[in-house]
Amino acid sequence: MIIGGKSFVSSPPAFSNDAKKLLVSTGNTVSVYSTSTGLLMAELEGHKALVTSVVVVSASTPASKILCYCWTSSLDGTICYWDFSLPELMKKVDIRLPIVSMVIPNLLGPPVGENGKPVDLFAYISVEHVTKRDDEAKAFPGQIRKCNLTKSRLLGGVILAETQQPEAIIISPSKEFFGILNKRKLILWKVPDKDSENDVVKKIILHHTKSFTVLAFHPTQRIIAAGDVTGRILIWRGFGKRTFSRSVGSLSERTVESEEERPGVRGDDDAESCSTWHWHPAEVMVLSFSFDGAYLYSGGKEGVLVVWQLDTGKKKYLPRIGSPLLFFTASPDPSLLSISCADNAIHLLKMPSMEILNSIAGIKLPCSFPDTYQGLYGGVVFNQTAGLVAIRTEDYRIQFYSLFDDREVSQVRICERNHQPDDDITLVVTLLALSVDGSKMGTVEVKLPEEGIGGLVCLKFWASGSRSGDFTLSTVIYEPHSDAGISALAFHPTRHMAVSSSYRGDFKIWICNDDLQQKDQVLQKSGWRCHSVGSYKKKPMTAAAFSADGSVLAVAAGTVVTLWDPDRNILVAVIGETFMPIVSLSFVGNSEYLVSISRGSEPQLSVWSMSKLSVSWSYKLHVEAVACMTDASSFAVLALLPKSSKRLASDENRQSRKDGVILLFNVESPIPLSTWSVNKAKAGGLAFLQVNPSLLDRKISDEKAPQALLAYINSDHEYVVFDPYNGEDHKIRKNRLENLVPQDETGHFGYTSIYGELQEFDIRRDQTTEVPYAPSEKLWETIFSGSSHILPPLTKLCSTFLESLLEKRPAIQE
Amino acid sequence: MDTSRTINLGEVSLHLRSGQIRFFGVAVAMDSPVIAFGRKTQLCVLEKRKTEEPPRWESFCSRTLGPSSLSTMSSPNIRDLLTSFSHSLDFLAISSGDGRIKIWDTWKGQVQTEFADITSSIPGDLYTKPESGHLSVDYTCMKWLHLEKKRKREAGFSLLVLGTGSGDILALDVSAGQLKWRVSDCHPGGVNAIASSPHTLCVYTAGADGMVCQIDSMTGNLLGKFRASTKAISSISVAPDGRTLATAAGQLKVFDSADNKKIQKFSGHPGAVRCMIFTEDGKYVLSSAVGERYIAVWRVDGNKKKSASAVLAMEHPSVYLDCKYGDNKGTEDVSLYVLAISEVGCCYFWYGRNIEELHNVKPTKISLSIDRQLSKNHKDALPTIFAAKLQCIVKPSSGQVFVAYGSLVKPTFDKITVQHGLDVKLNTSPNGVLLPLIQTYKSKKVLGAQTEVTALDRSNAEDALLPVPKISDFLDKKRKERHPSRDPDRVMTHDLVDIQREVKRVGSKDDQETVELDSATICIEDRLRSLGVLTSEEDLTRDGYPLNVNSTRNSSIFSDAHFEANITQKKIKASVLSMTSADAYKLLTFLVNMWKSRSGSGKYVLPWICSILVNHNCYVISQEPDNQMLSSLYKMAESRSVAIRPLLQLCGRLQLIIAQIDKAVVTGTQILPNDQQLDESEDLDVSLFEFRVVLVHPSQVNQI
C-alpha cells in the first residue's frame, strides 16, 4: 500500500522559527522538509482529510527559537497541535466543520494574563457550513468564526462574516489585523488587544470595482496591498484609523476626517489614501511585503516574481520561473523565502540575489486545457515493469514519476518550444504510449490551428537511453494520417512495431528497422517506417490494441471491432457492434478476451470472446480506464458513478466527492471480485504494476508476494498502489483509502450509491435466505470488496443484483 | 613558473592547521602571496590575507582534476574515492578527497546536495576554527547508517558517519543537512574504518591507534573502547546480527561484541586489509588487502584452522566487497553471491552453490566499454564503475546489481541484472565530460550518427510494404493457400527458371544459359527435391509418365495442344463445366503432372488447373486423402513463389539496361529484333532472353 503524488501547493507552506524547516501540507499529512537540503525529514500524520493550513507557534525570545510547535487545520473538521521535531501529536480540537483556513493571532507561546492566569488561545477559522438538506441550499455556506483552542470549542453565535464561498483568511505579520477577500470587497478585522470570548471584533470594509484575488498586510505600518483579477495592485495607507482607533460610541471625529482629502479612496472607505500599480497582465496571485516593509513582492500567472520598492514603485524581476506562482512565504530568516508554483514545486529563494537555492518538487499537476480540446487528451500512461507513470506537463514535457518511490525520475522534452505560463495554448501533446518493456515511447502532438489555418499533427517515436525514463527522439512523422487526428497509438508487445489509428478512417502500422542497420554495413537510416495501411469501410478508427502475443491487432472502427493480422495486413474478422463508438480496447492478458469501452449517451463496457467472436458480457457503465493483468485473466476498470445516482446518494457521500468506483473482474464472469470507491475518478488512470523483486526485498518478506499491484491515479495526480488480491491487507488498505478521501465514511456507498434500490432488495433477501447475516446493516462496499469467503453467496447476490440492473433499462429488457 | 619554487613539505604544513594532508607537490609564487599545492586528486591554491594580523591563508580556489591526474598512475584509480549508498539506494554519497561530500540522487542522476565545510556550521564549537575551510578536512572513511524507525510516524532518518584523518568522527544528518554529532580525537592518528550493523544502534570505529570504539549512533556518546591490535587497524566489520566483530590490520581478528573477547584469529594477509565484510549469517568473513589480487573467504567457527576457505582471484586489488545469500532448493546449504569492485573500476561477480564451488568459479565481469579515442584524450577522467551494491537475487545464479559508473562529474546510475557467466559491458556516454577542441570533430560525427532523427512527411505511406489491406475469408482460405499465386503470368515466371534438359525437350525458345549465369536464381529442381516433391529416381522427363499421360489423353476429349495454346478463361470454364467430376479430376492429375514435369508451360496449364479446382472442388477434396496431389501442387506452387521476387527484380534491371541500350542506339543488329519484342511485352521469357543477349555482348554495354 503506497500513497503518493500529493500536491505540495494546496496551501501556503510555513517555515519553522529557525528557518531550517519548511512545513508543507501534503494531502492528509504535513511534511517537514529541510530548507538546506530539500529532503524530507518527518511527516505529521493524523488528519483524515486535506490539511488546509499550518501555523507555526512563533518564538518570542531567541532561546525559544528551537521550539517546534505548530497548529494545523484540516477539512476533516479538526485542528491539531504538534511538536514537529519529534514528531508528535499533542492535542486535537474537533470543530466538526470543514476548515478551509485558520489564523491564530496571539501565538507567542503560552501567554500569561495580568493576574497570572493563562489566557485562552483563540483562532479565527473559515469554515464551510454545510446544512443537513441540500434542497434548501444555503446562500452563504462560507463562515468566518472564532474558536477557543484552549477550551477546544467553537464560540457559539460569533459569526464574523458569511460568504458564498469559504474564503482564506490572511493575517498581518504583526498579528494585529486579519482580513478576507469577498469579491469586490476587502473585509478587515482588528484583533482585540486582550482577546476574550466576549470581545467585539471591529471590522472595516474596503471597496474596489474589480474582484480581489490576493491581500497582504504591511509588517509595521497600516498599509495593505491587494491584487485584483486584472493585474492591478492597490495599496491603501492608513486604513482603519477611524474605526479601529476610536473607542466605541464616540462619533465626533467622523465629520472631521471625512473632510480631509483622501486620494483614491472609494466612497466612505476607512483609509487615508489609495494608489494603484499595474504591471501584471493577468490576475495577481501572490502579494507579500518584505520583512522590513520596504519592498512588496508580487507574482501571477505569467511566472515572474516582481519586487516593488514601496516608496518609489521601482521594480526588479525574477523571471523564468516557468510556472504560475501560487503562494509566497517569508521566513524568519530575512535571506530566505519560498514561492510555491502551480507545477507542484516549492522553490526556496535566497535574498536579495533572488537565486533559487533548492526546490522541492513532486508529481506534476494536471494542466488546464481549453475545453474544446479536452477530448484530445489521452490520459496518463504507465510503465508496468518499472512502476513508472508518465505524465504530460504544461511545458511540453513528459514527466516520469516512480510510483514506488514517490519521486520524479526524469523529464523528457517532447518538442523544442519555449513555454511561458501565460501564453495561449497553441500546441498540445495529446497521446502518449509506452511499449510493454518501456524501451519505446510514442507521442502525438497537435498544433492547434489559428483561425482554421496551420493545424499540424505530428507523431514522434522515441527510443530509451541508458536509464529508465531517459528517451531520445528517433523518428518524427509529420501529418501521419494527413490532416486527420490520431485517435490511438499502441505498441506491439514484443517487436518494434506500433499502430496509429486516425479519425479519418485508416490505421497505419509502423515498424522500426533497427535490425536492418546492424546487418548492412551501409548506413541505413534507422527509424520508423510505415509498414502497412488498413481501413475498414472508411469508418473512423477510434482505438487500437495488440494482443499479448502480438499476433492479433484489434482496431475499433466506430462501433465495431476489426481484427487484423498485423504482419500481413489481412482483415481476419469483424465483431460488433456497440451503441456508441468504442474509445478504448485492451486484450486481457493471455486470455482470449477483449475489453472495449464506449462512452457518450450509451456508455458500455463489453467483454468480447475471441473464440466465439461475440460479446461475452457487458455493462452499461461509464468507464474511465481499464487495466489488464499481463499474465492473468482478470482486469480492473475505473467507472464513474452515474449522475442520476448522485441524487440518490447520501449527503456524506456527495460531500466526500466520491465519484468513481474501481471494479475488479475476472473475464469469465460479470460479477466483480472486489470493489473500491474512489474520488476524483474523472480523467483518472488505472494500471497493474509488475511486482519488482527489489521492491519486495525492501518490504517485509514474510508475507506472500502479491501477484500484481494495482495503481490508481486520480485526476489530481494523487495515486495509490495496493495489492488487489490480498485479503489480509484489506483492513489496512481500507483505512488508507479513506485517507485519500476527504470525508470519513459512515453512510452507504459503492452499489447503493450507484443503483440506490437496495431497500426492496434487502427485504427480499431477508425473506428468502436463512444465512445468518444482515445485509441492511452491512456496508455494501464491504460486502463487495471483502474476500470471497466472507461474502454472502454470490448466486443469491448476483441474481438480485442483475435484476436491479435490468430494472434500470426497461426498454432493453423487453 | 620561473618565479616559483618548490618548498619543503613540512614547512607548508606548519601554515596549515591540519597535518594530515598528503601533499604531492607544492609550489609557491615568489612575488605574490599565493601557494598552490596538490593534494590527492585536487589542486588547491591558497592566498595569503595580509589585511589581518597574523596573516591567514585562505582557500583561493581549488579544482578537482579527476581521480589520478596528480599521481602518476595512468590507469583509472578509485582507491581514494569514498562512496556509500543510502539504505534504500536512492542516494549515493561521494567524497573524492577534497573535503566535500556530494549526495547524488540516483533516480534523477542529479546532485541532491553538497556538503562542504560542515564542521564550521555549528556555532560555538571550540574545536573548529574559522579559518579551516573544507580543505582542512580529510575524510578517510564514510558509512551511511540507516536508523530504524522507532516510532511509526517518524521518517527513517539516515546518518552519514565520516572518519577524518585527524581522528575525528562526524555524523551528518543528511536530510536536515546538519552535523548531528561529533567525536573529536577519537582515534589519534586517523580513523580508518567505520562499521555498523542494522540491528544495533551503535557504530564501531577503528583507527591508527589500534583501538576500537563503540559509539551510540543517536547521540554520539562513546559507549566503549578496547584495544584490538597493537598496530593500526585498517578495516572493521560487524556481522549483520551484531554479535561478532572483525577487525583487521594485517591480521584478521574476530571478536565477540558482547564482551570484546577474541574468538578467532586469521593471518594470511601480508598487507593492511582494505575491505572486509561478513556474510549475512556471520559465518564467513570476506577480506581483501592492499595490493592483493584476490579475496579471501574465512570461516568463523572458533576453530584453530587458520587457512582461508576459498580464494577468489581477480585482476586488480579490490576496493569494495558485497555479498548475499540465495536459496538453494533441495539442499541445506545456501548459495553465495559475491560482488567486488577493483581499484581500476571493474566489477566482479561470483556465484557458487556452496563455498567449495565458489572457490573454483570464474568471476563474471561488469566493465565499461570505453571508446578508445576518448580514453586516449581523457586519461585523467576515465569512466569507471565506482560504486555498486548487490540489491537482490532475482533467480539462482543471477543477481540484480545497482551500479554507479561513468565519470565522477556526471555518474550514471543503473540497475542491471547479472547472470553468472555472462560478462556485462556497460556503455558510457561522454555526457558531462569536457571534450578538448581536437576531439570535437570526431566525436560530433559519432554523436550525430547516434542521434539522427528520421523525419517523414505527409507521404509517409508511399513506401509502405502493404499499402492495401486484404480480407481473409475463412471459407476461401484453404483454397487460397493452395494457390498463393493464382496469376498465370506470375506462375509462369517460375517455369522460366528451369532445368536445361527439361526445357530443351519442351522446345521452348528460351535459352537456358542465362540461368546458369544468374547465380542468385534458386534452382527449382533442388528445391523440389528438398521438399520431397521430386525424388531423384523420378526423372523429370515426359517418359516418366508415359502410361499416365497417354491414358489421360485418350480418355479426355482434349488434346495436348489445348494446353499449349492460349485459350480464353471463358472457354476454359465452359469446357471444364462440361466435364464430369471424375473426368475433371483425371485431367487435373494430368495437368499437375504436366506442370510438375515441365512438359507444359505454366502459362497455359495453370488456368486449367485453377478452373478445375474452382468448379470441381468438392470432388477434388473428397479424393484428396488417397491422392497427395493437392499437397504436392501446393508445395510446388509455394516453392516457385519464393523465386518470383528475385526474378522480378532481375526483370526490372534488365529493362533498365535495355532502355539504356535503346537510347544509345547501338548498331548491333542482332539485338534489334529482340528489343522490339521486348517493347511490346512485359513477359519474362523475353526479358530473360534479352538478358542473354546482353551478356553475349558485354562489350557493347561497356561502350555505353
DSSP strand (E) fraction of chain B? 25-35%
CATH class of the domain at 11-168 in chain A: Mainly Beta
CATH topology of the domain at 11-168 in chain A: Methylamine Dehydrogenase, Chain H
Calculate the terminal CA-CA distance of chain A, rounded to whole Å: 45 Å
Number of helical stretches of at least 4 residues of chain A: 12
Low-confidence parts of chain B lasting 5 or more residues at pLDDT below 50? 1-32, 49-56, 58-74, 121-131, 151-155, 436-450, 474-523, 534-561, 668-704
Terminal residue distance of chain B: 72 Å
Largest β-sheet summary of chain A: 4 strands, antiparallel
Runs of chain A in which pLDDT lies below 50 for 5 or more consecutive residues are 132-136, 247-258, 516-524, 647-653, 696-703, 728-783, 810-814
> What oligomerization state is this entry in?
heterodimer
Cα shape of chain B: elongated
Gross CATH architecture of the domain at 11-168 in chain A: 7 Propeller
Rg of chain B from C-alpha positions? 42 Å
Give me the count of strands of chain B. Answer: 35
Main sheet of chain A: which strands, in order across? 1-57-56-55
Helix count, DSSP H or I runs of 4 or more residues of chain B: 18
| Mean pLDDT reading of chain A | 77
How would you describe what is shown here?
The complex is a heterodimer of chains A (814) and B (704). Among the domains of chain A are: 11-168, Methylamine Dehydrogenase, Chain H (7 Propeller), CATH 2.130.10; 759-805, no CATH class. By secondary structure, chain A is mostly beta strands. Chain A contains twelve helices and 57 strands. The two termini of chain A are 45 Å apart. In chain A, the strands form 14 sheets. Chain A has a four-stranded antiparallel sheet with strand order 1-57-56-55, with helices on one face. In chain A, strands 2-3-4-5 form a four-stranded antiparallel sheet, with no helix packed on it. A four-stranded antiparallel sheet of chain A has the order 6-7-8-9, with no helix packed on it. Chain B starts with a strand and ends with a helix. Chain B is built from 18 helices and 35 strands. In chain B, strand 7 (91-95) and strand 8 form a beta hairpin. At the A-B interface, strand 5, strand 33, strand 37, strand 42 and strand 46 of A face strand 30, strand 32, strand 34 and strand 35 of B. Strand 37 (471-478) of chain A pairs parallel with strand 34 of chain B. Chain A: It holds the Pfam family Beta-prop_WDR75_2nd. Chain A: Keywords: Nucleus, Repeat, Ribosome biogenesis, rRNA processing, WD repeat. Chain A: Residues 394-644 form the WD repeat-containing protein 75 second beta-propeller domain. Chain A: WD repeats lie at residues 205-236, 277-318.
